[in-house]
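Checklist before submission:
- one chain only
- standard amino acids only
- sequence pasted in full

Submission:
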Amino acid sequence: MNTVSKPTQMQTDSIFIEGLKVNTIIGVHPWEKCQAQPLLFDIELFTTIISAAQTDQLADTVDYAQVSQDIIKMAQKESFELIETLAEQVCEHVLKHYRGVQAIQLKLAKPHAVAEAKQVGVKIWRQRQA
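Returned file contents:
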């Protein structure tokens, strides 16, 4: 009987931001272009926290408050038609500006897009290219 071993994974920690609410103009329908609506972001930033845990210094980790502010500014800076576009730009920004982040998982929900649904949205995963 052949056994298949699971691939080894580097131990990775994560920092998360859950339920970040941003009111912004987004959408393809005429009513969406003139009325702000909420978006909900759930973000998981894959990094290591070992250094920060040892030093107890913010400089040795990813500042989730700053990441949150960056996302709010991005979402409110310009209007987007698709949440897919905004989600991709947020991931690109985080990977470019936060060197400690090796990968990001982002869930972006638009609660008022479909009246019969609690929320609709996209989930994406991006990782730093070697």
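Reviewer check: DSSP finds three helices and four strands in the chain.
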